[in-house]
Amino acid sequence: MKQIYSHTKDGKGSKLLKVHTEGVKNKALARLSHLVHFKLPSDEIKKLLEEVCNYHDLGKYTDYFQDYLLKNGEVNPTLKQHARIGSFALFEKYTQKNIELAFWAYYLIVNHHKNLSDITQTEFANQDDTKRLDFVEYIFPKQKASLLENIKQIEMELSEQNLEAYLNVPKDKLIRSQVRLFAQKQPNIQNYYLINYLFSLLIEADKLDASETEVYDRKAIPSDLVDRKYPLLENKTIDFNTCTQNELRTFVRQEVIARLDEPDFLDKRVFTLTAPTGIGKTLTALDFALKLREKIRQSENREAQIIYGLPFINIIEQSIAVYHDILEPSPEVQLLAHYQYADALEQIKNEDEEKNKGYNQALMSLDTWQADIVITSFVQLLQTLIGNRNKMLKKFNHFAGSIIILDEVQTIRLGLQPLIGASLYYLAKFLDTRILLMTATKPKIYELAEKEITAKLGEQIQATELLQSYEQVFSYFKRTKIVPQLDLLADENEFLAFFSEKWQTQKSALIVCNLVKRSVDVFSKIQAYLSENSFNNPIYYLSTNIVSAKRLDIIKDIKTDIEAGKSPILVATQVVEAGVDLDFDMGFRDLSPIDSIVQVAGRINRNNHPKKQHAPLYVINFDDCHKIYDKVTEQQAKKALANGEILEENYLTMIDAYFNNITDHSSFESSRKFFESMQTLRYDGDKKDYPVSYFKIIDEKGYAISVFVEIDDRATECREMFGKLIRKEISRQDFEKYKKDFNQRIIAVPKYLEKIKELENEKSWLITDSILWVKKEELNEYYDLVTGFNRDKEDNNITIML
Question: Quick one: pLDDT at residue 765?
Fold first, then answer.
């Protein structure tokens, strides 16, 4: 028997191809859930996946690939390719019994080392495709001849009795007919979830097996871990007029988890949790997820993965600390944090994985979520759900049967909310996923999804609210009030006059601006004002203009000052809107979406001090709202604030009216078009067609560039190691211990700034083509240690439209 390899190490065969194929098949089938709901029977899905795994590396049996792998003589780069011949062979095998499955088999294998492509541009779908002729006339005959030399061995290793009969070029008209069916005649959103799921099972298993990465076996987690630290109330009812805020927090958690005892609860898939800021939603959701996981284990004999998604780095890191604290009694439980800053490693061109340089066990475990609980970013979670990238889709299959929590969902751009709601609904429907959306502002994500997308497909979305008494809980709080002051402010001097009129030296204050440049200018004015009047109030600045490595220190310092009674002032941008546990006496917020205003109010009198009842949040108007959001958002916010002062106990009514009054259908065009691309499998293509590949949860419109700031000695060390990584002097695994700190010193800065143009003109100021570098010796020229990157000549009138 001939030794035929799938991978090499140090120029020698390291794994037999038959061993790799069997390993991929076993890993993929082990991850396949029998609870997914597709039009195809589960046994057909299982058989299709098994066949795809069997055939995915068929082309590696050719001498052309083996010569390439083992470095035997001159290698023909065209003939060593291995995906297409396997995809066509399996297409031929399935053609006689099920043409639809034949097409899916072909599509999955031909793309398994690439990103998913638009099916209308798939090879053989286009009659004018020159690559098709090249393959038919030159590549296929030679590869087939090479396979036939070892056909008996191959058939034995693949347990395939009639492989030679399948080694034919497909009839292109059959492929074109399927493409027309799925893209034009009968587009079906189910196809998107089926393909992404099977593709994910294949590529995750392939990469796990190739890298010899251990597949994590999920552990049982005690369902009472939260209760041990925070005991429940003996009496399940409370008096809303006399209870403390801590008692209310426990009551909320108790009411939420009580829903789990309802007879039909395990039949539900889509949930919401609406509760005010400062009510402990993080702990409540974790307690709910652990107890739901236990019920699933008892009912279905499996360990569901918990996936917790958050929008911002600062609250991700806070949540990690909370989870570690709760999970401390169960150290065997695997908690994985997977989130990126401006991931520098993404800037490095991917190596050809067949050279075996791209495989790394530590990174593979991270990228494939080998854990019981995953805490991740909206970017990672939602751009896996709506995406085509091979790197991201490895973990798509982990959504199946999982418990997903999305916190602070009001931060999702309004225009994308119907798309997100519909995508999550179908994820729950097809992949047996349980999904919990949490917010303090009750955005109508599912309502908008139904109105704009699912109703047209005859689908209603029925979400279960876990906190049935949320209206009563909201009415308990009288911490703040919103005071609209919407006359236009000409500049920062006018704001200073207004601020000095409303503020008193004994009060801590939060000021939130829409624009970074505006916030820097306001900070300078307030700082000068304090100095001129000999006020001793500490003043701080916080925005994404500052490297994230320093932001947590700033928050800690502010909290220390507040606890010491020093009445600090913080000037910030939207970075403080969610998850920042600070408690100011009063606030000022530039006009913005109502949910953003309410989030800022959540940083004022956060601990419900009775002497600070109805502490004010003044909503001012620099005429910047439309520059960051859009005109519709600005108009809706003004309508919601038109009737003057709003007390916290009435916030829910205001929020409801805000979302109900959105009538501009055009606001959701991007949601509808992205969803259409999912339906028609338009994974890539021209940006104007909204292909899946162009979906981004954070849309920077191409205006920003990454800048590495060498702000301290650790930055220098990390930058030097990154340079070694680029020069291939160290591996990605070697760089892993520097990765977080390197990324925490990167900021996204507008390309139009004068200082950016200076950096771009000097090639020595580039770390990579996509990352500029502020050197330590030039730090004062480009970066202020208090306010961040130098924006002296930036114009506040520039429209950014994030």
Answer: 80
